[in-house]
Design a protein that fits this description.
Keywords: Membrane, Transmembrane, Transmembrane helix
Mean pLDDT: 80
Shape: elongated
Strand content: under 5%
Radius of gyration: 22 Å
Order of helices and strands: HHHHH
Number of strands: 0
Structural class: mainly alpha
């Protein structure tokens, strides 16, 4: 999924921007709801929490896209940790 998002032009900085935008929208929705709606502070809290919960998802997608960008820069498909594990020598059986 991340490779597909990267291929269609989505970049990590866009996801980080969306995450910070979500935090800002959360604050704005709380202020607007608290000021202009007659439903009370409970409703304003619910709106702010609803929008604010998007931020961790956007941050996680940003990190995943950043890893994809780094692997593309190095010109390899496999992550670095997989290559390192192949360098480790496997123990041999004694007496075989």
């Amino acid at each position: 999924m991340i490779k597909t998002l990267h291929k269609i032009g989505l970049r990590s900085n866009m996801m980080y921007g969306a995450a910070f935008g979500s935090i800002g929208m959360s604050i704005a929705s709380w202020i607007i709801s608290n000021k202009y709606e007659q439903a009370g502070i409970e409703r304003a809290d619910r709106w702010a929490l609803f929008v604010g919960e998007w931020a961790p998802t956007f941050f996680a997608m940003g990190i995943a896209l950043q890893l994809e960008e780094m692997s593309e820069e190095k010109g390899r498909e496999t992550p670095e940790w997989q290559e390192q594990s192949s360098d480790i020598r496997r123990p041999t059986r004694a007496g075989v």
